[in-house]
Design brief:
α2 crosses α3. The protein is elongated and about 90 Å long. Helices cover 46% and strands 26% of the residues. The model has no long low-confidence stretch (mean pLDDT 87). The chain has five helices and six strands.
Length: 168
């Protein structure tokens, strides 16, 4: 299907733009040829040149190793951020443990933290459950148009008949 030529010399250089399945065992290749293909290659080389210049590299050959190095650094920094966030949430949970109130059947804490994501709330609840006895924790966060609730109870509070699902 598509355009046919007697000899590939008629179309010159070829730049494959896309490739897709159009049926069982049938593939469609979309390509640019001749000057359009050359223009595409030139545009890509110009883009790579601008990237190399922005990264203050001496040539296009240095772009790939530099990007790989930067991705490794980003992954390492994400791990550090995660570790620091965990420490921060542990400290916040320890601070909040002094706000736990004594109830008739269980101790409890209800707190609102705006702008905190659900994972952070879960981490705080988990830490509080580990540091306080017979405790039920209910945390909420409002962030623009989203509200997140996290509730948790330690084993003793659950044994006393408390159900976080009912609270939520």
């Amino acid at each position: 299907g598509g355009c046919h030529v007697y000899n590939t010399q008629e179309i010159g250089i070829v730049k494959i733009v896309s490739e897709e399945s159009v049926g069982s065992g049938i593939r469609r290749i979309t390509a640019k040829t001749s000057f359009a293909a050359y223009s595409e290659f030139a545009a890509l080389e110009a883009t790579m040149g601008r990237i190399a210049e922005t990264m203050k590299l001496k040539g296009l050959g240095q772009v790939e190793p530099k990007v790989e190095q930067m991705l490794n650094e980003i992954a390492m920094l994400k791990k550090q951020i995660s570790s620091l966030q965990n420490e921060m949430f542990t400290l916040k949970a320890n601070e909040l443990s002094s706000n736990v109130k004594a109830g008739s059947k269980v101790n409890y804490l209800v707190q609102r933290f705006d702008g905190v994501d659900g994972k952070a709330l879960k981490d705080i609840v988990s830490t509080l459950k580990g540091t306080c006895e017979n405790v039920v924790v209910f945390l909420a966060s409002a962030d623009e148009d989203k509200i997140t609730f996290v509730a948790g109870a330690d084993k003793q509070a659950i044994a006393n008949g408390f159900k976080c699902g009912d609270l939520v």
